[in-house]
User: Which sequence fits this backbone?
């Protein structure tokens, strides 16, 4: 990191000082609230993505929010939380490019407030409740700096009715391999065919490396999930995806996979408009799309065809109880 | 490197930059403007209002300017002659702030960063965390309406502090200070992230050709540019201009491009 902005309220915290100590040569800029930098006008996401700054802040207000309807892997009470905004990866389909003005990373250092809110939420019901990490960031990519997941797992180990999903593309799994697995956690990898990873998921680990990480996690006793998301239309779609499924399921213990899901390619229209201005040379964003309910997506027939093919292929490898269909494509 | 405009307030600040970068006078009825291979220099005059109006007028007159660097003297509790870069700019009277997105540290070695506070009258309550000037917020206020803040920067040279009064500043000392800061200015210009900007040259060239020969409304021109970008992204080259020109009207060209785009198949 070359520039680090620090809210005055958190500057003296040991966690803040530990993060700052990792970057002794960075410029340190004191600010009042992260929003004055993160939400400022006259920013260009694409330019900043080349050299993002770091913002260390305190998250006030609601830290645990309900997921959109239909977003679940079997639970009835589903929530998400974001200890961090933005991601070190640069996937061309990612909605973050359209949602945020800034590509700078925001890390909320008041981790314990997140854990307390999750605990309080989980105690409001007798049923298990699910908590999804990785909505506004990759859960593990900056783990060596933040150590968030390590502490999060400590917290969840005391909350047996709270189920955690760690969503990631990262191979930063050291903290997971140096501790016992906990029963109420699923480490879920977003996966795409290798050629799509190369073309559209810039700076991410290869498909092979993600599979290798999944294998290590599984062998260590972690529950793993596979998220084939988003499904991208291509002339050679069937070949790409069947090869990927072969590669993935040949390496993992299929019986022990917790859950598998498919995700459609969808973007809110305002986000899409911004993204195509940022990346006019992107063939993914230049392709024909439909607008439905103010969302850009492939046409319904194409979407169903992609899903139908993948579901048929998945039946060769997993049982129905492992598969969580995407409600919005049914 | 796209054209950059250096903005200074005083003639003494401009002089060493004019000499080093080979600027020559550029005719404008109301602005003191200079031009060279690297871009332009604007000498806006003293004060926030002159800086803002000068910057805005310059950007209107020179739409190809892709970056702005405000260069000048400032007061701070740093040694006189030190060069610093602004990590934030604040207008003291309104409390409005801007945060330029700074280049990597390795591209500007040894350059300290401070908050530049633009004041309406000279101030002398110096601090090492900030530097007082009288123009920077004016430049940023105008520039941020047109350019993103990765391309609006400010370099200041310390001219006064608690041991060296503002009264001791002379034209010759300002010339000397800015002369010593020229390498930092040049390094900053070279580190601006122009390579991250998408290229629109081919689209703009073809679009200009088509809109010269055929009548286009503003909306149609916008749609044309979007379609040309999409075609270029999907096919990997621009469409044949001759076959588009043969179509004779905007609607037919739009339909042809949309049909061509529909027929493209993406493979990975």
Assistant:
């Amino acid at each position: 990191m070359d520039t680090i902005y620090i809210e005055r309220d958190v500057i003296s915290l040991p966690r803040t000082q530990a993060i700052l100590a990792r970057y002794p040569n960075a410029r340190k800029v004191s600010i009042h609230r992260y929003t004055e930098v993160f939400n400022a006008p006259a920013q260009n996401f694409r330019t900043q993505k080349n050299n993002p700054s770091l913002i260390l802040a305190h998250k006030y207000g609601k830290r645990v929010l309900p997921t959109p309807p239909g977003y679940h892997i079997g639970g009835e009470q589903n929530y998400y939380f974001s200890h961090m905004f933005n991601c070190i990866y640069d996937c061309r389909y990612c909605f973050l490019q359209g949602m945020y003005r800034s590509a700078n990373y925001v890390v909320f250092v008041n981790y314990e407030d997140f854990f307390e809110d999750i605990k309080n939420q989980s105690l409001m019901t007798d049923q298990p409740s699910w908590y999804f990490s990785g909505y506004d960031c990759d859960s593990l990519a900056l783990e060596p700096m933040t150590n968030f997941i390590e502490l999060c797992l400590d917290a969840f180990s005391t909350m047996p009715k709270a189920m955690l999903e760690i969503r990631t593309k990262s191979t930063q799994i050291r903290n997971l391999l140096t501790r016992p697995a906990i029963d109420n956690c699923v480490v879920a990898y977003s996966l795409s065919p290798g050629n799509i990873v190369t073309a559209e998921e810039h700076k991410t680990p290869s498909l092979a490396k993600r599979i290798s990480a999944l294998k290590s996690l599984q062998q260590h006793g972690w529950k793993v999930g596979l998220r084939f998301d988003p499904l991208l239309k291509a002339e050679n779609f069937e070949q790409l995806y069947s090869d990927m499924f072969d590669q993935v399921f040949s390496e993992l213990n299929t019986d022990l996979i917790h859950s598998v899901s498919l995700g459609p390619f969808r973007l809110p229209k305002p986000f899409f408009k911004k993204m195509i201005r940022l990346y006019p040379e992107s063939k993914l964003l230049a392709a024909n799309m439909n607008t439905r309910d103010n969302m850009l997506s492939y046409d319904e027939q194409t979407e169903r065809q992609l899903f139908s093919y993948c579901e048929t292929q998945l039946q060769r490898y997993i049982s129905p109880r492992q598969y969580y269909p995407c409600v919005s494509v049914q | 490197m796209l054209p950059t405009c250096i903005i200074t307030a005083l003639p003494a600040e401009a002089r060493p930059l004019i000499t080093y970068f080979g600027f020559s006078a550029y005719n404008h009825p109301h602005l003191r403007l200079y031009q060279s291979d690297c871009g332009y220099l604007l000498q806006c005059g003293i004060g926030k209002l002159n800086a803002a109006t000068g910057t805005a007028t310059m950007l209107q007159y020179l739409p190809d300017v892709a970056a702005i660097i405000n260069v000048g003297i400032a007061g701070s509790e740093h040694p006189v002659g030190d060069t610093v870069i602004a990590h934030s700019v604040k207008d003291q009277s309104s409390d409005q702030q801007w945060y330029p997105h700074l280049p990597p540290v390795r591209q500007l070695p040894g350059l300290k960063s401070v908050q530049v506070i633009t004041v309406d009258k000279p101030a002398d309550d110096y601090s090492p965390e900030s530097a007082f000037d009288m123009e920077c917020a004016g430049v940023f206020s105008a520039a941020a309406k047109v350019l993103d803040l990765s391309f609006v920067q400010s370099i200041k040279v310390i001219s006064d502090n608690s041991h060296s009064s503002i009264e001791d500043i002379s034209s010759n000392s300002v010339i000397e200070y800015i002369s010593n800061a020229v390498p930092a200015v040049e390094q900053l210009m070279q580190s601006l992230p122009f390579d991250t900007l998408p290229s629109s040259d081919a689209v703009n060239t073809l679009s200009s050709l088509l809109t010269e020969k055929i009548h286009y409304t503003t909306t149609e021109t916008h749609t044309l540019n979007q379609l040309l970008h999409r075609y270029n992204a999907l096919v990997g080259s621009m469409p044949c201009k001759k076959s588009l020109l043969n179509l004779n009207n905007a609607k037919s060209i739009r339909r042809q491009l949309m049909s061509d785009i529909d027929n493209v198949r993406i493979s990975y």
Remarks:
- The longest helix of chain B spans residues 171-191.
- Chain B touches chain A at residues 87-88, 97-99, 101-106, 113, 115, 129, 144-145, 147-152, 193, 196-200, 203, 226, 229-234, 261-262, 264-268 (CB under 8 Å).
- Residues 201-262 of chain B form one domain.
- The longest strand of chain B covers residues 67-75.
